[in-house]
Amino acid sequence: MKDSKIYSILAIAGTAPFIACAILTLAGIYSVEPFGRLDALAATYGLGIISFLAGTHWATCLYKAAITPFNLFISSNGLFLTVWFVYVLAGVGPVLLTQFLAFVILLLIDYRLLRVGLISEHYFGVRAMATALASVSLLVILLSS
Asked: Rounded to a whole number, what is the largest CA-CA distance in the chain?
């Protein structure tokens, strides 16, 4: 990505719903109408964000398949499907924990992409910051609910 300012702003702004849910939960507010329970809202939003991140890996694989260190179609899709199945079949607690783990694994995949030169250090740094904000927020929500 050439315009680092745009993806940096979007990545950090994308963590705002997680942070808001965490702060409100810490303040003892567990539900906001018309959205409902904040833990469920964060879980639903997290599913969308993980889908988006898996999609960025697909795009990377399509763009530079020859130098991709492993099959991103399988790894990212498998990770997303795991998160989705847990979302459909389990309660909010396991969903938040699974999403926390998925964010960490997706960042580790990005680290591998950084090491082979498929993403820039700046992009990885932004991703690491966004992952940290989202992950800490998910843990706060999980432990406060």
From this structure: 50
| SS3 sequence of the chain | CCCHHHHHHHHHHCCHHHHHHHHHHHCCCCEECCCEEHHHHHHHHHHHHHHHHHHHHHHHHHHCHHHCCCCHHHHHHHHHHHHHHHHHHCCHHHHHHHHHHHHHHHHHHHHHHHHCCCCCHHHHHHHHHHHHHHHHHHHHHHHHC
- 122-136 pLDDT, tens digit per residue, is 999 999 999 999 999
Name the nearest CA neighbour of 120 among 44, 43, 80, 60.
60
pTM score, two decimals?
Answer: 0.90
Residue type, 123: Y
Q: How many CB atoms lie within 10 A of CB 39?
A: 22
Tokens standing for 34?
């018309």
Q: Which amino acid is at 139?
A: L
CB 15 within 8 A of CB 103: no
